[in-house]
Design a protein that fits this description.
Rossmann fold; single chain; 24% strand; binds S-adenosylmethionine; globular; alpha/beta; two-stranded antiparallel ribbon
Amino acid sequence: MKSVPRSERFDDVYFSAEDGLAETLHVFLEGNSLTARWEDRDFRETFTIAETGFGTGLNFLAAWELWSRLRVQNNPRRLEFISVEKYPVNSGFIKDVLSGWQDEFGDLLMRFCDLYPVPKTGMHVIDAAEDVRLTLYIGDVAEVLPKIEARVDAWFLDGFKPASNPEMWTADVFAQMARLSHAGTSFATFTAAGEVRRGLQAAGFEVHKVQGFGRKRDMLSGVFTGGVAS
Ligand SMILES: C[S@@+](CC[C@H](N)C(=O)[O-])C[C@H]1O[C@@H](n2cnc3c(N)ncnc32)[C@H](O)[C@@H]1O
């Protein structure tokens, strides 16, 4: 049985108690159609993912693993993964929590645990592989997002549930997402909360309610169209 970390502060789990990795694959990787987009090489030289809520790094590891599996030899393309975390965990905690997926992640797991920084406030640039860079900001999403300059191709919205952590799902956060997005930038999130759907629409995202993971009936995914919803 894999251990499932829980936040007392937000009264929520970091990922699904049923199967956290399967949830990540369904919600974030397939919610952003990453397999298809990466197989089709449907992007410029760098593919940039931005995430709200780094937590244990499970989403990052899963994206890195998929990227390295689909990578073509000598492919000049790069994966940039940007994430923001206000209440960082330490590497020992990550090792404990993610060790249940040793078979799925292989060497990447130990490499990630070794590279994970002492999580002090500020920016940490981690070259995980020749073609994979993690930029981890330790700070509040409201303060960090306005400072980021990037051309984001896919968003992972993984703050705790909006009812217990509304700060991660504000109009300002959605406006920052829009600033960093381009036509075709996708997003995916585990929640189907109405205020999140409406907030993303108002910021210029086309939003779809799609099948959620496990016992969660619905989740949201979509693309940035730049228009303001009527
Ligand atoms: C559901 S967990 C993320 C799980 C994570 N993606 C993983 O793979 O383990 C939500 C994360 O958001 C972080 N968080 C909560 N409020 C935040 C804020 N205002 N700014 C940045 N991060 C925040 C929490 O500390 C927590 O790690």
